[in-house]
Design a protein that fits this description.
- By secondary structure, the protein is of the alpha+beta class.
- Helix content is about 30%, strand content about 35%.
- The chain is built from 3 helices and 8 strands; from the N terminus they run βααβββββββα.
- The chain is globular.
- The termini are far apart.
- The model has no long low-confidence stretch (mean pLDDT about 95).
Length: about 140
C-alpha cells in the first residue's frame, strides 16, 4: 500500500508570503477550502468547507515561514468530529526560501495505517487533488 503523496513546487514569493497563504483564513480560502470555521492554530480543530462537504482538521504544528502540519481524514465523507479519535493522514508543508523564490514540499502520509477502502479512495482523490491545489497556491501567490 502506498503510504504517501508528495508534491514539490517553486513559487515566486517569499517564505513569509507562502506561509501566510497557508495559515491565514482570509488567504487560504483563495486557493484551498471555500470556507474556514475556527482558528488555524496549533491544537485547534477548524472546519474546512469544500464543494463536496465539510471536514475537521487538527492543527498539529506551526513553525512560521518553515513548516506547517495538520491531520485530517482523506477522501472520506464529511467528517466533523474529534480527529484525535479516528484514523487520519498527516499533511505537511515544508517551506524553503531560495533567493527570490520559495520551494514548497507538500506531503500527505499515513495512508498505510488507514482502513483499506479509505486509503485507496484517499490516494486516488488526493494524488490529483494535491497537484491541483498546489498549483492554485502558486497561481494565487504569483498573481496577487
Amino acid at each position: 500500500m502506498q503510504d504517501e503523496i508528495r508534491r514539490e513546487i517553486i513559487i515566486k514569493a517569499s517564505a513569509k508570503q507562502v506561509y501566510d497563504a497557508i495559515i491565514d483564513p482570509k488567504k487560504i480560502i483563495k486557493w484551498f477550502p471555500d470556507k474556514v470555521e475556527g482558528n488555524i492554530e496549533v491544537g485547534n480543530q477548524p472546519i474546512f468547507t469544500f464543494d463536496h462537504g465539510r471536514t475537521s482538521v487538527y492543527i498539529l504544528a506551526a513553525k512560521p515561514y518553515e513548516y506547517f502540519a495538520y491531520r485530517w481524514v482523506p477522501g472520506g465523507p464529511s467528517i466533523v468530529e474529534d480527529l484525535l479519535s479516528v484514523p487520519t493522514t498527516l499533511i505537511e508543508f515544508h517551506i524553503e526560501e531560495q533567493g527570490s523564490q520559495t520551494k514548497v514540499t507538500l506531503t500527505e502520509s499515513g495512508f498505510a495505517s488507514l482502513p483499506i477502502d479509505l486509503a485507496k479512495k484517499g490516494i486516488k482523490n488526493n494524488s490529483g487533488g494535491w497537484e491541483y491545489m498546489i498549483n492554485r497556491l502558486k497561481k494565487f501567490l504569483e498573481t496577487n
